[in-house]
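Subject: complex prediction, re-run

Hi both,

The earlier run crashed halfway through, so I resubmitted it with identical inputs.
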Amino acid sequence: MAEARVVERFKKRTVWFHWIHTAAFLVLLVTGAMLFLPGLGGPAAGGLTRSIHRIAVVFFVGAPIIYFIINPRMSLHFIKETLTWGKDDIKWLMLAPDYYFGGDESKMFPQGHVNTGQKMWEFIVLATGIIFVVSGFFMWVLKDVLSPGVFQWCVIVHDVAFILAFLMLLVHIYTGSLHPRMTESLRSMWDGKVSKTYASSHYGKWYDEIAKGKN
Amino acid sequence: MEISRKDFLKGAAGATGLLLLEPPAMALAKDSQTHLGMGMLIDVTKCVNCWWCYAACKEYNNLGETVKPDLEQPPALAPDVWTTLHPVNKGGEWVSRKMACNHCTEAACVEVCPTGALSYNKLGFVQYDRDKCSGCGYCAEFCPFGVPQMEANKTTGVAIMNKCTFCHDRVTNGEPPACAAACTTGAIKYGKRAELITEGEERVASLRQSNTEASLYGVDELKGLHVMYVLDDSPATYGLPADPEVPPATTVRDIFRWLGSGLAIAAVAGFGFNYLVARIRMRGREK
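This time it finished cleanly. Structure:
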């Protein structure tokens, strides 16, 4: 029985949310980069890409709001998890280099539903998401009200958020789909499931909890 | 030839391979900035507020009908107003500075334009290609003189920039810009910038015999404006910033652009390295 060998890691709606948000972010990233890297500016001529940027924002902001309304408890848990940091995180960071460079798996202590690295990514998504939306709102809606100086720094803040989010996105894509140790990570974001072996070796603490039926 | 900071950064980024996608046409469109070339000299002491420059600009550039404005309520620069007067009431007597794009040698608008729509012309003025404008409005927000004007739809973000073109087609055919041709008193002079500096300095020297406030504005500002002013009062009186500069945010953006590109390349290289090491070590243990 195949079903018995896997556990649910993400709900279907979480998977949907993940990919809608990803698509919106990628559109924003590409159309935004056109105004950040002069070499990529060509296609921005005429302003169509700036309109697309605005349309993508509706999904980028709308998707988390709808997700929150549907799953308030899960969303609050996610936010709480993202903002909770402790000694274990420092311990994880110390062990991470060896772990990610293919060291002995047993040296890494059992992790909860997400590890510190994933939490860092969640934090960046949350923080830069807010920074993007606030600075973007200023530049879009309040353009005529703001002094040129404030506008200029909004551009810079938007740029910095872009760099942070883009760099961490690269790390996320690499560790989530290409890293030799993360064999089932991408799959888990596709059908929401991972094998029990993968769950217990990568998220031992979480696996023990769901095995006991706590979840 | 001097290499500007922007060219240097672009070169550096290009060398690292990130900007290989740059369309060659864009690289070509950017003539280097020059403080030489042509210019205009505006002498406020010769202006008689006739508004002919304003009317001629509108007429030549097809910017719509106009009536002679009131000095008390001068029209502001707008998408269809590329030049206007900045009138100052001096004890009942009106003295006006003609205002329009100053065509800086180091122009903030060109530095921040992401699409290459704004560029330097060999003759020294700041030209733009409407077809390349993305409507982002950075030029309008970064210009220290507040010159570029956006024609914008706020919701869709579709916008286009407008400003004085220095009458591009006339100037490149050896004719003066429409405003200079229309000026009845010699308050607007068009010519070689180097010669206009000499002329302006002589004029200021003679004004200074009775007025110590007189000055020539635009010789060194932003590495040299291509529109310079003979003023009989402080620049601020005529709505000109005493010390205009390319906003520091421009440099900060360049640094972040460089830093971000570098880190992204380093990250990708790091992943390749990590992948190899991790695989080798993991395989080694499997055996």
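Strands of chain B lie at 38-43, 84-90, 93-99, 118-120, 126-128, 149-152, 159-162, 188-192, 215-217, 227-231.

- K.
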